[in-house]
Design a protein that fits this description.
- The complex is a heterodimer of chains A (186) and B (160).
- Chain A is mainly alpha-helical and 186 residues long.
- Chain A has one domain.
- In chain A, helix 3 runs antiparallel to helix 4, helix 5 packs antiparallel against helix 7 and helix 6 packs across helix 7.
- Chain A is elongated and about 80 Å long.
- Helices cover 72% and strands 0% of the residues of chain B.
- Chain B has a single domain, classed as Butyryl-CoA Dehydrogenase, subunit A, domain 3 (Up-down Bundle), CATH 1.20.140.
- With 160 residues, chain B is mainly α.
- Chain B is built from nine helices and no strands.
- The chains are: A mainly alpha (186), B mainly alpha (160).
Chain lengths: 186, 160
């Protein structure tokens, strides 16, 4: 078979009638877009949950908690905005190598994000169930809390690996293969 | 979306449908995947059309977006090898296609995502310089890779 000749025997095919309204309104199935959707959802939850938690600490006159939760909330808002901006900067119009490298970087950032989420959810849970002064002592001296801490992080990372690891692995492999070039030619 | 915008998008997609069709077909393992990919390419081209600033050729830009969508596509399962009859089913448009073309597509699907991208651009008659602009590798490297991929593709075709 002559490859080029066979390729050129293809007749012009129509993609059919694309429903433009549906395409315009559909959710993207792209990996970067999915990560962004997820982060935006988490940011919205933070925007709603943060002020409620702040209001509860104010209502209970727990001013030390109030300051901590306020700081935590502001930090989280800044963090989400930074992360979303970074991932949004990935342009699908770049070269294949550039785009896949950016996608890989976004996936790695998202993995770190899951780690941070694990730590945050542990301290949030601990903060809600214990006295503040006991908190540091509990973590240092009580092996039970160390185990819980490790479980929180492991659960968070496992969630990431369950959903995203195959994509991380595949894209990593593609990038590695593309980048693997003789040194004098690249 | 205004009617004029709809017309523009429709015309633009029709103009570039041959590129979109061939690449999405080579990267699809089923009709569902093919539909997902073509819809996503249309969506991404549409979204980024306003950002196209003639820095590169229009075709270069369409190839880039289409390949980027296909190569980062989230597959439900691990890629499985598609046999020829499955490939024929995918191609089916109420029209009998040449066996050789089915075999070629089946062979293309067995290549790695990288090799597939480069050989598709080569088969499309793109020059090394343009392939280099699309993929992001040096021209020399593209030349070396094409020779190797063609050889590999021929071997796969013989196996089929």
């Amino acid at each position: 078979m002559k490859i080029e000749e066979t390729w050129n025997t293809q007749k012009m095919r129509s993609l059919g009638e694309l429903d433009l309204e549906a395409t315009h309104q559909k959710k993207s199935i792209n990996l970067v877009n999915k990560i962004l959707d997820r982060l935006k959802l988490e940011r919205t939850v933070t925007y709603i949950g943060g002020p409620i938690l702040i209001a509860v600490t104010l209502y209970n006159h727990t001013y030390l908690y109030f300051s901590l939760v306020l700081l935590y909330f502001l930090g989280l808002v800044l963090y989400y905005n930074f992360l979303i901006r970074k991932i949004e900067s990935v342009s699908i119009e770049g070269t294949v190598l550039e785009y896949l490298k950016h996608t890989l970087k976004s996936l790695r950032r998202f993995r770190t994000h899951y780690l941070i989420l694990g730590v945050i959810s542990f301290f949030l849970g601990l903060g809600l169930t214990t006295e503040l002064f006991d908190l540091s002592l509990k973590i240092i001296y009580d092996p039970f809390w160390i185990v819980i801490f490790l479980i929180a992080i492991a659960t968070s990372l496992l969630t990431f690996y369950f959903h995203y690891y195959p994509h991380l692995k595949r894209i990593n492999q593609i990038v590695r293969e593309l980048d693997n070039q003789p040194p004098n030619q690249y | 979306m205004s009617e004029s915008e709809k017309h523009f998008v429709r015309d633009f997609l029709v103009e570039n449908q041959a590129i979109i069709y061939k690449i999405c077909r080579a990267y699809s393992n089923s009709n569902d995947e093919f539909n997902d990919l073509t819809q996503e390419v249309a969506f991404q081209l549409w979204k980024s059309k306003a950002r196209f600033k003639n820095k590169s050729k229009l075709s270069t830009w369409v190839y880039r977006v289409t390949l980027n969508v296909c190569m980062s596509y989230i597959r439900a399962n691990k890629i499985k090898t598609v046999d020829i009859s499955e490939a024929s089913a995918l191609a089916s448009n109420n029209e009998i296609e040449k066996d050789d073309l089915d075999i070629l597509y089946a062979a293309l699907r067995r290549l790695s995502d990288n090799d597939k991208a480069i050989i598709l651009l080569y088969l499309e008659g793109r020059k090394y310089e343009e392939i280099s602009e699309i993929v992001g590798l040096s021209k020399n490297n593209i030349g070396v890779k094409i020779t190797r991929i063609r050889k590999k593709l021929k071997e796969i075709i013989e196996e089929l």
